[in-house]
Design goal:
alpha+beta
Length: about 140
């Protein structure tokens, strides 16, 4: 990774640094990445219902049906909706593991590179759902 990504988790300023811990290769990391991969796959297959199934209750409250959610993603988050290539970057978890933050590096089909930061919430059944994303153009990227 390049030095420009060293401040990528600055948007997590509302959390005390002491509450975050680096992810280890464990079930939490796999579960968070599975949610993201599953949703991206659903987008690529134009499966609104499947993509919506990975959204958190908070997102579903704002977008009460799959079609509205899908339309919002298509209009607002095109690199996530139609990524070229993507790779997982760093992950962090709140100490109790109920919240995860996962970096995903995306090469958009438009040729731009993006750093996308997923906010995920663990559900009672242990799976993670996506509670939001923040995208930034990765102007210093040299590709994935």
């Amino acid at each position: 990774m390049h030095a420009g990504l060293s401040s990528t988790f600055a948007f997590l300023g509302f959390l005390s640094v002491g509450l975050l811990q680096p992810a280890q290769a464990d079930d939490r990391t796999d579960a968070a990445r599975l949610a993201i991969s599953g949703q991206i796959s659903a987008f690529l297959n134009d499966d609104a219902e499947k993509a919506y199934s990975f959204a958190s209750p908070d997102i579903k409250a704002r977008f009460p049906d799959a079609e509205r959610f899908f339309d919002m993603v298509k209009q607002t988050y095109t690199p996530v909706y139609r990524p070229g290539n993507y790779a997982f970057g760093r992950a962090k978890f709140v100490a109790d593991g109920n919240r995860a933050y996962q970096e995903v590096l995306i090469s958009g089909k438009d040729g731009k590179d993006w750093a996308v930061y997923y906010d995920l919430m663990r559900q009672p059944d242990g799976r993670y759902v996506i509670n939001g994303v923040k995208m930034t153009v990765d102007t210093l990227s040299r590709g994935i």
